[in-house]
Amino acid sequence: MLSRRAFLGSALSITALPALATPRRSLTAGPSRHQIAPADYPDTALWTFNGTFPGEALRFAQGERLDIRVKNDLPQATSVHWHGLRLPNAMDGVPGLTQPPIETGQSFDYAFDLKDAGTYWYHSHAQSVEQVERGLYGPLIIDEPERPDVNHDLTLVLDDIRLVQDASISEDFDNRHDGSHAGRMGNLILTNGMMDARFDVKRGERLRLRLINAANARVFQLGLQGLEGWVVALDGMPLQTPERPGETFALAPAQRMDLIVDVVAEDEAFLVQYDRSGGYAQATFHISGRSEATRPAPDALPPNEVHALEIDAARSVPLRMEGGAMRGLQSAVYQGEDMGMRDLASRGMFWAFNGAVGRQEAPLIEAALGETVRVPMINDTAFPHAMHLHGHHFQEVTEAGMGPLRDTLLVNPGETREVAFNAHNPGDWLFHCHMLSHHAAGMGTWIRVRA
Q: Is the pTM here over 0.85, yes or no?
């Protein structure tokens, strides 16, 4: 019934000894080739970790120590960001802010304790528009000490990629239309690196679906067909009470969603991706056989550590998003220079936070350790932005109360959405739009948490 779009168509803190030690692993970033287009097209040259696309699923138990040496066999410098993890600042993987870039032929050792369970991912944070598009990303799963009762625990990494007619990657990474509009959109939709991702299940089985949006800029509009269940975690953080997902739900770039679902279809079930032309099978669950097991609604997952917010006494630091096509910038501060829109555009810079283009010398926020900070985010542009804060999770402040813990929030055009976070993690942390072309074109700032 559902058809795929045509190819190329328009709580543990490890402080006591002994720690849960794990042997050092290695990730090598380098070229590899993969058949991601249909079989009658050539394979595609990618950049990947350890030659797999997506990168291999890194899986740990909560409380283990991640110890990974990243070696760079690429023709340009790179780094690895461990997205969504509350980790030591020196391990965050942002060149020029937390570490030097890993130059060609060099390596860097990442080692830190995994305090939070949940669904995370790792990806390049150097020239990310290009390097993530070429394939430098993978899932990072940290299991709870007691896992929920499910028949299958499945990770679905959603992506799109822009290919040209010979199935090679379109190398227009500095495309100014992308930079000034919605960002780099692909013409091939993938799940786990495949156009047609399929899983074998039985009617009546219970699944844990870990959804990760690894796309440069695409906001996936999703729905379930033949599956019924609950959202149990967002961005790695468990919900206090599992919630029904609704008929459709959005997953913005860099966001994750964990669902526990029951298979209720007779023949096939689907994770559906919707766009203006209809619905398509993002993933297909082929049903063979029946499970007689019956289960009650799932309990909430065990919570990760929560840092209390002092909302009433919190300082407020507004962040206004400006620029882009159809709005533009009349003037802005760019690396200490007052510049007009024409000059900024000539440098490929189209966006600003509070009138400042790109990461400035002074932080947007300098916070005391443990301070609660509120950030009203005003989207005065014509496009959505997926705002991501490194090293912390925040909660949205709404009239109905505090939203769930997240590390990435989608702010649509014309919206004002306010978040609050406890500055519990010392260091210098990036705060940016995760539409990667937007970040490259000016939508990046940073905060400092004093030790």
A: yes
